[in-house]
Design goal:
Blueprint lengths: L6 H6 L5 E3 L8 H9 L4 E4 L5 H14 L4 E6 L5 H10 L4 E5 L7 H6 L3 E6 L2 H9 L4 E5 L5 E2 L7 H11 L4 E4 L5 H9 L4 E4 L1 H4 L8 H9 L5 E4 L6 E4 L2 H11 L4 H8 L3 H7 L23 H14 L2
Parallel strand pairs: 1-9, 2-3, 3-4, 4-5, 5-6, 6-8, 8-9
Antiparallel strand pairs: 7-11, 10-11
Helix pairs in contact: 2-3, 3-4, 6-7, 8-14
Length: about 300
């Protein structure tokens, strides 16, 4: 396959239009550097990092990654302004933002020469991202793990609508776990793909072995959306999520539901490996995940499958 004229590859100066999602508790410098060195774009996931920890990961990335990399910043996080400061101070060249307004930090980042990408769940928001001056947009379908848009649009509906709505490069996300899905995204107008759960279940991922094993063992429908009254989250069903859903169905006020969820649920599940009471954020692609490869093995497989799916 020849990606020499691919818009996403040119934008990031990478070999393959494959981006690793900036997942909390999984996307540290080890995973991100492995993806970048394999020809894709690795992202350090700042969502689970305080500013000093993010700085440490960026500095390690500079040593470990021979090729371009970026940082993913969820704007809803309380440390996001300081995380932007760290990225600028450390000379990060690519920043992905999400969970907030694309206008918030884009002008400042662009003034510093940073390539800015924002994640959205709808074509209407993709237009706002383009108007805000971002260089590209990620359109993430509801099949994705973690926080989901309230629109609930599946990737099959979302991707072509975004391709028709904007002129900037569009990167498809949500439900991509192999090269066949990557090919489908390109057919529907994408110039690149972003994979989250599939990269979380690799050897270099910072996720706990228990989390990775739970994703491999997952069967159909295991990754459910819950927390609908506050902020939809897709996670593997376990004792905690079942109890939360029961409370939600019983009509408990949002404040009580969030108090029950508490703090650190995703850390407990993804990073610490508590598969019963932790939040095991994962996309629907986990049903098709059957192994825990190295990043290089996964990249080789994706490209081979992409070629075969013509």
């Amino acid at each position: 396959m020849d990606f020499s004229n691919n818009r996403v590859c040119k934008l990031f100066n990478i070999q393959y239009p494959i981006i690793q999602g900036g997942m909390v508790w999984a996307s540290g410098w080890k995973l991100a550097s492995a993806v970048s060195n394999a020809g894709g774009l690795g992202l350090v996931g700042a969502g689970s990092m305080k500013p000093d920890v993010l700085r440490e990961h960026i500095q390690k990335m500079k040593t470990a990654a021979e090729k371009p990399f970026g940082v993913n910043i969820p704007l809803a996080g309380k440390y996001s302004p300081a995380q932007v400061d760290v990225c600028l101070e450390e000379g990060v060249k690519i920043v992905f933002t999400a969970a907030g307004s694309a206008k918030l930090h884009t002008p400042r980042l662009k003034d510093a020469g940073v390539t800015v990408v924002h994640v959205v769940p709808s074509a209407a928001l993709a237009k706002k991202v383009e108007a805000a001056g971002c260089d590209a947009v990620v359109a993430e379908g509801t099949e994705a793990g973690g926080h989901n848009g309230r629109e609930g649009l599946t990737s099959l509906i979302l991707w072509p609508s975004v391709a028709d709505a904007v002129k900037i490069p569009f990167i498809a996300a949500g439900g991509i776990g192999d090269g066949r899905a990557m090919r489908a995204a390109f057919v529907l107008g994408a110039q690149g793909v972003q994979l989250g759960t599939r990269f979380a279940v690799t050897q270099e991922s910072g996720a706990h072995p228990n989390y990775k094993s739970a994703c491999v063992a997952a069967t159909g429908g295991a990754a459910r959306i819950y927390n609908l009254t506050h902020m939809p989250i897709r996670s593997l069903m376990n004792d905690y999520v079942k109890e939360f859903c029961q409370k939600e169905a019983a009509g408990l006020p949002t404040e009580e539901l969030q108090a029950f969820r508490g703090k650190g649920r995703s850390q407990k599940g993804v990073f610490e490996g508590d598969v019963r009471q932790g939040e095991l954020v994962a996309g629907q692609t986990c049903e098709a995940i059957k192994d825990i490869p190295t990043v290089q093995e996964l990249m080789d497989r994706l490209l081979k499958e992409f070629d075969a799916a013509v």
